[in-house]
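Translate structure to sequence.
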């Protein structure tokens, strides 16, 4: 079916994108999961279906040799990255262009640039707010919310963060590395600051004034590895509104500890605790005990598997390593053989667990 879909073209005459095929697969998998729950089929054949990843274009630095080859043959890489001198030369060449200031807005998407309005721009403070983007839908440009999660931050909080003086930031080094979901890497240091903030000010008699603790982490340039140096530093901001009585550094560290605990609660709520509560108190107590045991075993399983499984969600571990697509074969006297798929993606991770918890077979007698 997916081979046939891959050969089809959309309304613009282009082949179906990999993302479209993934959405079709997700819809099919959800429907077949419902069929399994209803007892119509024994297993979901779409659970082990994997679509080939679309090869991404590889960026090439636009060196003098590439420029010469392009002028001679017209051939150029799909993604060409300018050097700093080339960027400077380009900015000088468009200096008289009416849209010249937009070329300096590093980091904005095309739709966000096109969606800027004069009300979003302040020439006095040299600031702009990205509150919408223009998306091409049905031959028309339609305004949508910004795609970036950072664009969803309350404008009042963004204004407060922007007003924090540069000298107010305090460097902090975490004793343990912290996994940054947005950057997809481990970070071990950050800068923090705090200001007084009043929340719910628009609601009568519900305004609350407390501490707004802000952590900022330098946003690494993804093109740095191929020679695209940073023109200036940019940051990602994470804010927490709290009335903690502890000093700034301790309050920030405690907030990170709370976030780890909340992640455990989220794993439990998405797993065994989803079946609570029961009408029997003793049954609830027994189930919570079993849930804690299985959570610890599941986290240990992820650590033994290694790699990304050490930090994966519980649902991911259950889907990849617990619900094993294996066939059991008995050969008498309790001997069981597990037949795993030949090209199973998580074979090595599963074998890491197996080798860690099983003794090696006894040596044959000579």
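Result:
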């Amino acid at each position: 079916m997916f081979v046939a879909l891959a050969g089809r073209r959309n309304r613009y005459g282009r082949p179906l994108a990999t993302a479209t095929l993934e959405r079709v697969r997700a819809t099919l998998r959800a429907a077949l999961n419902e069929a399994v729950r209803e007892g119509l089929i024994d297993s979901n054949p779409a659970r082990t279906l994997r679509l080939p990843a679309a090869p991404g274009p590889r960026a090439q630095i636009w060196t003098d040799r590439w420029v010469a080859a392009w002028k001679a043959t017209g051939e150029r890489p799909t993604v060409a990255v300018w050097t700093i001198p080339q960027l400077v030369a380009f900015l000088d060449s468009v200096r008289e262009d009416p849209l010249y200031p937009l070329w300096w807005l590093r980091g904005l998407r095309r739709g966000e640039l096109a969606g800027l309005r004069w009300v979003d721009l302040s020439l006095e403070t040299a600031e702009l707010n990205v509150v919408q983007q223009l998306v091409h839908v049905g031959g028309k440009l339609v305004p949508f919310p910004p795609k970036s999660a950072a664009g969803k931050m309350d404008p009042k909080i963004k204004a407060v963060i922007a007003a924090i003086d540069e000298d107010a930031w305090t460097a902090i080094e975490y004793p343990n590395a912290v996994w940054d979901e947005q950057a997809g890497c481990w970070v071990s240091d950050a800068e923090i600051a705090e200001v007084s903030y009043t929340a719910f000010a628009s609601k009568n008699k519900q305004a609350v004034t407390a501490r707004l603790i802000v952590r900022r982490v330098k946003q690494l340039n993804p093109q740095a590895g191929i020679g695209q140096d940073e023109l200036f530093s940019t940051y990602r901001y994470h804010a927490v509104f709290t009335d903690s009585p502890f000093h700034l550094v301790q309050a920030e560290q405690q907030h990170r500890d709370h976030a780890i605990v909340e992640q455990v609660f989220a794993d439990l709520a998405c797993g065994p605790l989803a079946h609570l509560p029961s009408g029997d108190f003793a049954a609830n107590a027994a189930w919570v005990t079993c849930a804690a045991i299985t959570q610890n075993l599941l986290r240990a399983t992820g650590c033994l598997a290694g790699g990304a499984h050490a930090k994966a969600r519980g649902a991911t571990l259950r889907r990849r390593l617990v619900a094993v697509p294996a066939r059991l074969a008995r050969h008498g006297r309790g001997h069981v053989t597990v037949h795993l798929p030949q090209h199973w993606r998580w074979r090595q991770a599963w074998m890491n667990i197996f080798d860690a918890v099983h003794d090696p077979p006894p040596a044959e007698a000579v």
